[in-house]
Amino acid sequence: MGCTSSRDKGDDNAKKIRKPKPWKHSEQVTRAQLKRMREEFWDTAPHYGGRKEIWDALRAAAEADLTLAQAIIGSAGIIVQNPDLTVCYDERGAKYELPKYVLSEPTNLIRDS
């Protein structure tokens, strides 16, 4: 007559991550524009706080498949608040917010001409 709470791992780092739900950008963007937006975000993100090594791990996770991303998040000690990685924390409590455009493509992405 054990309790059923044994399913709960109790470890925020072990939270299963997933890609964001389909989303639409405020205006149509090309793949080249999306790439520039992502580069600009990753270049400036560390200037808004947090540790560079956590930003680097988040970028690697954002650009990896889900299995590898899960391993990166776990090994970096990143605490996932939202399973789509839009809000995370490091072990010191610093908050990291990622826009959906660095995590997946919008539904209104248009081809480069």
Provide a descriptive summary of the structure in words:
With 113 residues, the chain is an alpha+beta fold. The protein contains three helices and five strands. The strands form two sheets. Strands 2-3-4 form a three-stranded antiparallel sheet, with no helix packed on it. It has a two-stranded parallel ribbon with strand order 1-5. Mean pLDDT is 88; it is low at 1-10.
Brief rundown of the structure:
Residues 1-15 have a biased composition (Basic and acidic residues). The protein is α+β, with helices and mostly antiparallel strands.
Could you name the key traits of this structure?
UBTD1/2; DC-UbP/UBTD2_N; 3 helices; three-stranded antiparallel β-sheet; alpha+beta; 113 residues; DC-UbP/UBTD2 N-terminal domain-containing protein; globular; disordered N terminus; Bacteriocin As-48, Chain A
